[in-house]
Amino acid sequence: MSTQLSLYNPRSTPPEQLEAMLVGRDALLKELLDNLREQAKGQTRQHWLIRGPRGMGKTHLTGIIHHRVRSDPELSGAYLPLWLGEADVYEVYSPATLLERIAERLIEVVPEAKLAETLRTLEGGGDEEGFFEELSAHIAEEAERQGRILLVLMENLDALLEGFAPKERKAQLRQLRSLLLHDPHFLFISTTPTKYMSALTNPKEPLYNQFKERSLKPLTVEEVGAVFSKLAALTERKGMKELLEGPEAALRRKVIHQLTGGLPRSVVMAFEVMSDRTGIQPLVEDLRTLLDEQTAYFEARLRQLAPRERTIVTAMALAPKNLTLKEIAEKSRLPERSLSTLMSRLLQDGHVEVTLGSGGKGTVYGLSEGLFRLWYQYRKGRLLLEPLVKLLAYLFSATELQDTAAFLKERMAQLRKETRYSAEMALLQVEEALRLATSEEGQHERAQLWKECLDEVEAARATEVREELFTMIEQSLGTSAEADTGEPIDYANLAKHVLDAAATLPEAIALDCVGQLLLLTYSFGGPGHEKGLEFLQLLEHIFQGYDYPVIRKSVPMLHLFLGGRLEKAGEYQAALKYVEEAISHSAECGPHPYSVPIESAQWLRALILQKQGRTAEAIPAYKKFISEALQGGTPALINAAIQALFALAQVQVDSANPREAEEALHRVIELAENATDSSLRSILGNAKLMLIILEVERSNLPTGQTLEVLASWLEEFPEHWMRDDVRELHRVWRSALRAFDKLHPRAAVEEFLSDPSPAYAQLGARGVKQWLAAFERRGIDPQQAETLQLHYMVADALEAAALEEPGDSARLRQLLGQIPPELRRMVEELVEVERKRRDASARSPPTSPSRPKRRASSPRSRK
Amino acid sequence: MRLRNEALSTGSLLAFSSPEEPRRSAGILFLVEGAPDIAPLRDIEQACRPLMDGRFRWHTLANQFEPSTVGLRLDPTRMTRLEVAEFRGLSLDNLGTLLSPALQHLQQGTNCFPSATRTEGSVARGVDFLGRDEELAILQGLLEQRNHVLLVAPRRSGKTSLLYRLSEMGAGKLRLAFIDVEKFRSPEALGAGLLAQATGRRFTEALKEVRARSWQEVLHEAIGALSADPLPLVLILDELVFLLDNIGDVDGIRAVLTALDAAVTSVGARLVVAGSLALEHFVRERGMGPLPGVFGALRRYLLPPLAQGRLEIELRRVLLGTGLVADQADLKWLAENVDLAMPYPALRFLGHLASVAHERVLRPEELEEELDTFLETTDAFADLLEHLRELAQEDLRTAEAIEDALDRLSLSGRSLELADVKARFDGTDEQQRQRFAWLMEHFPVSLEGEQVRLASHLFQRFWRTHQGAGT
């Protein structure tokens, strides 16, 4: 190593350096320290357990907590942090001996503590209750004297608990539980490398759920980069800047992340290797020291196992890969039938984990603790450090490794015999890496690793570019763009930029980007905005300058959108041409991400034909689209089919095909009955309403049953956009029906005469005539009858106006002549309105597919 | 949902100052972000008005980091920071209910609101103790009527916290002595521990006395000393079964129970027994037959799930204490999915959310994902399931019927008729009654009149998605 930094042993690392190397743990640290602040004011203690495999940074985090608590005025006033040594845990065999270690640490931190004297004179065995009680009382008294809570930081809680003698274990765990639960002078922050600890998760165990647990996660790719940057700054290594910021930096970060699994310790090792491959000798020494340091822990864990369990674990550790039960049986020479019970126990205690399969035949098992395999192989004299060998083999070329080996050999020759061992070890790793790098298997693995990483890096880049393009398109064409602000848009530049960028992206993402450009261009400024059409036409021109598959696949959509815009502009012929072009090339679109399906070109074609008055062609076009959309079966297509069915019903009504209209409406109801989507609910409401109206039109007047159906409609669709109209319609119909009510004819007439407009609006002139005719046989006031007669004449004239053929106005003139002169002028004006409405209705295209049409002289018209 | 932004600079500080003890001065700072906070802040001030006396005062802080600019000399660590946004949409009544206990705790210098992150595994005391007024009153009533009580509930239901609360209440009518007996491994240690607690002597001294005389004699004397107060003694023995299990042999257990019975009876004390392991089950497993004296006459009191009435407001208090800021959509989601009827799993989940919120803001759909993951991995309900497994080993058909009842309750999401639930159980009326009682004792099931329902949304969802027929 080029500088004297301790990168693997946080205990001997200065706190400032630990802080400088910290990456990816800020949130957890904040949570933990905030919690300590809160707990300082509380009466009880919530103890913590941090989980994470070896090398994940637990000791580093513990070191930071230790440092922060000591240096923060608030926390140091509330807590006295005591960081137990790693070896302390292995000396503990009871809660009392744990307290003894805590007391010793306290005295180290506060040498003048009175506890020092007490501890010297305290007698008793580590298992004795008296010793535990006395010690806990003395430590509590010392904590009171210090005016602080003892914050005990200790590692390997699993090893500590396993150190309790099996016979005494339960009783001792209860003693420990009592301390944790009832003694507020202690707050423990522990760590453990194991995922499983039945002592904490089994409800029959005393310590069940006693700790607040958090797990350390592996570093992300970005965090790996951050570790490299921080280490580069700390170690002042030259050349690392290029490595971290060069064009290949993202790919290199990804490869390192993949090779290290985001394990901080391995990331540091990778940094060492990458920053100076010729200097791997100190790294090998560091790794050997690290493995030596694990000996106490791993040996303690091995001791806990029964001989046969130990045989399984060691067989798995020596194997180069994870194993099936059959393979374990072969390697351990244990009978396969006895293995499942042993494996269950090993699984339960967290020594082993399933890496593939679900416990049945063929299930593959691995060791839970990755470092154990390395440690055990090292202890068995296998001097190859597999992670290091892989890093070297996959990060460097064969030539670079050859150079490194030559360099190490040359340097070794200059070393004295007694200092040569670690150099030999380093050379061994490099030579093995070279062998791996040049082997067929190694080359394949290396190529695969780099390719996978490259793909991922490119995918991430493509996603980033897509986000940028989407933002750019949204800013230029979205709701806040020119249409609203009046700022001019350089559309050609925008489109070219998007198409150029899309050309470099994977097809799916490129389609997405071009699709977004198309969609926002189409909807730019709303339906009536002329720029939308202008931009689409410009885009058609720009498309011609590009020729890559995504463009070819996007052309049908462009044509569809052009057709849509032209249709809105009333240029039906041109629209039809584009739409038919889109239909004929729709197969080239392939699977695409557009929210508007290309199949809707058929629908648009039907609509254009309808608007052109080519109803006979429009009807089969609608049917074709509906049939294909329903077959397509995607939610978007089914939604579109329902809308088209409703539009078809309207066309059928216009074509005087009420039966076919009803058929289409029933199909709408069938498809949309259970829909929750608000637009479909709206169409469902329209369809049901239209059916009611068609029924009334057939019989000319509503019945009591119609009113009931209408009331049900209002109940079913309380939020429908036509609810106010329907409520009014219900009122008028109810009023109209009273005319037939033998009990209240006068009241009905009075109601009509007080405000006749709604009756005209909702019943139409013909309906009003029929209604008025009903009174001829009824006993009503002569004065009322006279007024009604006037209305009869007005309704007659309006009906004639609605039905009048161009050029044939003789009958209308005659009817107008019968109206008293003082009213004639007003009625003539009304007739004129009715004529204009009639003419507009004949000229106008059908209304939007999603809204029911209102017709003159029908209950849906409004006067 | 997000973490509170304590870095906002502006706010209104409700400061408490005690002229007698200036070090007890403390404050609640209501931080404001913008105009939408004006009206809620006015409501907060109005709600606090009847709760304030001369020692409380409002200050407007333009910059919370410079309180001296308004002449305040307040230790920043004694300032509880809240966002006004956390109180939006609350009525004046609810604001009063939320803030009234907070102001009391402020005066005592303790945390103002209960926090999910403080009580995941520890005893809930002080502000962290939630609800249970009714249960405490019932327990007190039972004790005043000279009953000996066996407190029954699954693990992590809050028995120890309740007993602490009971012992701290100082009812004026009873002298309550809480004794954690799980740490003792022998009758001698129990005798010494009781003597040490009664007399204030060191444990080893007491142990010497036990060895010099006999543990029975010392135990008798210790309980006598504890009952020296004119008020009737209530001896709360937490985790008695752990102690008995530590002792191990049946004769030793019987001797301890007999000695305790004799001592308790001689001074007319009452007994409250509680613990992680069920006493009846323990006794049955060892074939011990009837227990001596008061232990044979223990009145069972089943600790129910937290009462529904105040759960919503308690949840708001916990959110305030945990520093989680929830908008209306979050609150609606929480009300539908998380309640404090079973406080432990709910607090653990809220603690987990707080942990995630330290990393990022949580969108409503992410809350759903987090809950799914939590329910998939939590062992918070492990004790409930363990009891069901044990039952299945003893009586498979009943266990299946219990599972069936839980399936129906969790899937229906509403109350079921008691008769319908009982009808799922085989046997005579008495057997059906017993099985239903088992269900009530081991699962968060509540009975209101003749209506049965799952009291906890969280458990309902856990059962529906991870245990029951819905899986």
Percent helix of chain A, as a range, is: 55-70%
Task: Give the DSSP E fraction of chain B (strand runs of 2 or more residues).
Answer: 5-15%
* Poorly predicted tracts of residues of chain B: none
Task: Evaluate the radius of gyration of chain A.
Answer: 43 Å
Helix/strand-derived class of chain B? Answer: alpha/beta
Protein model, in words:
The complex is a heterodimer of chains A (863) and B (471). The relative contact order of chain A is 0.04. Chain A is mostly helical and 863 residues long. In chain A, β7 and β8 (364-367) form a beta hairpin. By secondary structure, chain B is an alpha/beta fold. Helices cover 50% and strands 13% of the residues of chain B. Chain B has 20 helices and 14 strands. The two termini of chain B are 29 Å apart. In chain B, 46% of the residues are buried. The interface between A and B is large, with 45 and 50 residues.
